[in-house]
Amino acid sequence: MSKQKTLRQKMIIIALAFLLPVIITLIVMAVCGVVPFGNKSTMIWDSLLQYKDYYGYLWDVFHGNAGIEYSTGKALGGRMIGIVAYYLSSPLNLFIVFFSKTQIPQFMAFMILLRIGLCGITGYIYVDKRFKISVIPGLVLSSLYALMEYNVYNCRNVMWLDGVIILPLIALGVWKCVDKKKTGLLFTSVFVAIFCNWYTGYMVCLMSGILFIVEYLNANDFSIKKALKTEWKSIFRYIVTMLCGVLASLCILLPACMALVGGIATNNTVGLSRIVNMDITQFLSGFDVGAKVNAQDAPPIFTGTIVLIAVVAFFFNSAVKKKEKICMACLLALLCSCYCLRDLELVWTAFVRSTSYFFRFSFVLSFVMIMIAAREVQLWEKDQVSKKEVASAMGVVAVGLAFLYYIKKINSPRNIVIIYMAILGIGIIVLLCGNNRKNVSKVVCFGVACLTAIEAGYNVYIAFSEYNNDARSFSDYTVVAENIVDSLNETEKGSFFRYENDYNYLKTIGRDIATGESLLYGYNSIEHYSSAYDFNVDRFLAYMGYSDIPGEKLFLRETYWNSPMLLTDSLLSIKYVQLKSPALGYEKTDLKTQYAQVYKNKYALPLGYPVNDDIKKVSFGNDPFENQQNLLSAMLGEEVDVYENVDSEYIHTDKNGNEEWKLDVKKDGPVYVFVDGSKTHSRLYDNNCEVYVNGELIQNACHRFEINSMYIGEYKAGDQIDLVIKRKTNRDKKHTLYVSQLNTDVFEKAINILNTGYKTDLKISKNRITGEVDVDDDTEILLSIPYEDAWSAVVDGKEVKIDELADTFMGIKLDKGKHTVQMVYHTPGLRLGLIMSLAGFLIYAGVEIVKKKMKKQKNKTA
Fold first, then answer.
1. Which helix (H) or strand (E) element contains residue 261?
2. Which of 148, 354, 498, 744 is the 20 to 30 Å CA partner of 492?
3. Average pLDDT of the chain, as a whole number
4. Element housing 813 (H / E)
């Protein structure tokens, strides 16, 4: 009966560890009007630009509408394991099945609450098991861990919180490995950490090594000499357990790493920098509750003033051995230097430089502070902490706060600083003037609880007050978008087509930016935005003028479609487009929204069509229209002048920095313009320019997500076009302008050639391409799907070679006649990763079995 009562009490405490930070967060959400209490969604920054789309894709996977290995909703098509492993592999995401796509804002809010609550649970389990402190201070520390600045700010990168959840369990596993000689928790935690999110998993595994050194020294009274002389079984036990845990996770880690080789891991800035990030005062300013976020001058390390006081008090505590203080000081100094020195920061991010959300490893410092604070509480409860030592710590914090405010390193307003100083002053007086330790303890505990709740709530409020996007508008847009996609799929009856639009959800809320709606709503597209990109595809689309500057390596992680280009749209099977204004070659359909009209491209080619062998040796330059012409010529095997040059004359730049051009049209047809601002603007993250044609705004330009060829209308021979580039930045240098006019007669003739001499019903579903192709002559069929070695092809029951065409696409050679084609995509590294994962589990199980047998034999001998 007593055991049941103890278990019931433990369950209640665990529930409180979950509920306390969740309740504080819910109160703040209610105050801010955030879902579920209001109409503001938690979708902001990356959660708005990326994660909503990935959750929509995951919803389709669980409902059988999409495959986990491959998707043609990702920039022409690509493997999905990189996205899955980084964003979606957490088992917590299974809850998406209980929501609809219109309820993704509600799902994201639920994920935030769930993860914050789980951080509270694991934080409490650690401080309870490791330091055996009483319930109330344990709940205070676990709540502060769950609501630290890193967590509440990174709710917009909610998958990173999985590492925060697992870190206390790994730390506890390290302690058990050293102190109890038990490795089960450490092995399981390492596997789960990497499986849920390999990125933060890497960080917590790195931190586990540091924590092992601390625990190993602690087990040897912080004596390095004694530690070196003692048996090495603990070191061997830890290394074997970590290796087995990492090995067990290779089922997802190996294919994820292979997917990233062609993306951010290859083309981002990597390596040593020799640059100082910040000085010590900038680092210390991160302990301010109002510290700046997403900035390089203050890290997100605020964990609570009480925690900070406890950490400082630990170093004043005369009951703590000098060697222990030195060990913890070295640990804090090491982590501090990782903020101040750029090279050390890179170690935490796997030597890939962060261009936003800086100091992504900050949760490890907050955890160490919680760890030291728990140790100080442990000493307090053993009556090994004097009131003077705590008062001195509070004084140091107060002086430090005043100093940082004086040198203008504090971001919090003056009133907040005054309140803090007053509370610290009162606390010092209570500690020094109180004679009864028990009464003082009660007063201090009550004050701590109140301060914790208020301060934690204010910390959450600062982060959540930035949420301002409307959840209902997203739901309304989603209903319309899904209806359009369903209607197009019903019309095409399984035939392959791509669908693009120049007016997506992000533009409805005033964001001109790349989008991944194709993954969200389950259609084929050239658009994509993530770190798991395909370099060859991004480069090809840049050459064609869709996104980025041809020949430049600027923003390779995003591809987008902002304006119709009839030639390449047709070659890439873009059959439907949503436009605000009509464009030549696109026929109006019955589908429309309050935002735009859906048009059909009557020239769009199928998934696979015959091309000439010259396609294997095509080359591209800096002019996107010349590149398109070269591509078409290579496909046909003859020089084709499908674009006519349009004379462009630079007139002048007026006093407002507006760059004026005159364009002279020689023939009839649609005109396209590409504005190259790479030599004009020093920073393409800004909204640098607007392009006007005959006084009408066409689109923004020279911005990271708006570097593309623009359709400016259909013109007649002899027409003059006034083009103005209104510049908001860098008003001195002139842009490079590429202007061309599509020769519609040549275009139609070329499309007719590419569209005759064969019949095909090729289609793609998940990771398979199937169908029949009937060709009139021996030929090479180009598939507008990116080439990868991971594809295998079987024609008429025989495996055939897949060629790489135009350094981008797949091609298969077919003899004259009718053929059955079957192609399958196998995720690189997945099979080997599964085998190695199984090996990891088996090796660990084998080691544990041998250990038990040896222990049993040893006991018999004794």
1. helix 250-261
2. 744
3. 90
4. strand 809-814
Q: Are 59 and 101 in contact (CB under 8 A)?
A: yes
Tell me phi and psi for residue 656, to 5 degrees.
-90, 5
C-alpha pair distances (Å), 737 with each of 212, 630, 678: 60, 19, 11
**Three-class DSSP category at 249:** coil
Encoded tokens for 722: 């006034």
CA 545 to CA 559: how far, in whole Å?
11
| Helix and strand numbers, DSSP H then E, in the chain | 30, 27
Distance CA 210, CA 218 (A): 13
Q: Which residues contact 118 (CB under 8 A, 6 or more apart)?
A: 18, 165
- Cα 811 to Cα 616: distance, rounded to the nearest angstrom: 10
Q: What is the pLDDT of residues 474-523, one digit of tens each?
A: 999 999 999 999 999 999 998 999 999 888 888 888 877 778 899 999 99
- The gap from C-alpha 506 to its chain's centroid, in whole angstroms, comes to 17
**Cβ contacts of 120 within 8 Å, gap of 6 or more:** 17, 18, 19, 20, 21, 22, 142, 143, 145, 146
Torsion sign across C-alpha atoms 602, 607, 613, 618: positive
What is the torsion angle, in degrees rounded to the nearest 10, for the CA atoms of residue 82, residue 88, residue 94 and residue 100? -110
Query: Using 50, 70 and 90 to split pLDDT, how confident is the model at 452?
Result: confident
Dihedral sign from CA coordinates of 721, 725, 726, 732: negative
DSSP 691: E
Instruction: Quick: pLDDT tens for 421-449.
Output: 888 888 788 777 766 656 656 666 677 77
With CA atoms as reference, report the closest residue to 472 among 27, 38, 158.
38
Give dist(CA 515, CA 150) in Å, integer.
26
Residues contacting 345, CB < 8 A, separation 6+: 277, 338, 339, 354, 359, 361
Q: Which of 309, 299, 287, 289 is nearest to 457 (CA)?
A: 289
Residue 578 to residue 501: CA distance in whole angstroms: 4
Do the beta carbons of residue 363 and residue 369 sit within 8 Å?
no
- CA separation for the pair 177, 848 (Å, rounded): 13
∠ Cα 807 808 811 (to 5°) = 95
- Tell me if 734 sits within 8 A of 650, measured CB to CB: yes
**CB contact at 8 A, 203 and 361:** yes
Taking the alpha carbons of 456, 462, 465, 467 in that order, is the dihedral positive or negative? negative
Three-class SS state of 705? coil
Return the ∠ at Cα 13 (arms to 12 and 18), rounded to 5°. Answer: 95
Amino acid at 371: M
Distance, CA of 614 to CA of 824 (rounded, Å):
26
**Residue 296 and residue 422 in contact, taking contact as beta carbons nearer than 8 Å:** no
- Are the C-beta atoms of residues 76 and 786 closer than 8 Å to each other? yes
pLDDT band at 229 (very low <50, low <70, confident <90, very high): confident
E strand intervals along 511-607: 528-529, 558-559, 574-579, 586-592, 597-601
Give the largest CA-CA distance in the chain: 104
What's the whole-number mean pLDDT along residues 577-594?
92
659 and 653 in contact (C-beta within 8 Å)? yes
* Calpha distance 328→142 (Å, rounded): 20
Measured at the alpha carbon of residue 621, what is the angle toward residues 616 and 622, in degrees to the nearest 5? 150
Q: How far apart are CA 205 and CA 792, in angstroms?
A: 36
Identify the CA nearest to 841 among candidates 189, 244, 185.
244
The answer to whether 791 and 802 are in contact (CB under 8 A) is yes
Q: How many CB atoms lie within 10 A of CB 647?
A: 11
Please return the burial class of 384, using the count of CB atoms within 10 Å of its CB with bins 0-12, 13-18 and 19+.
middle
Q: Are the C-beta atoms of 148 and 456 separated by less than 8 Å?
A: no
The torsion angle over the Cα atoms of residues 482, 710, 548 and 157, rounded to 10 degrees, is: -30
Tokens of 753: 């050639």
| Chain position carrying tokens 């055996």 | 132
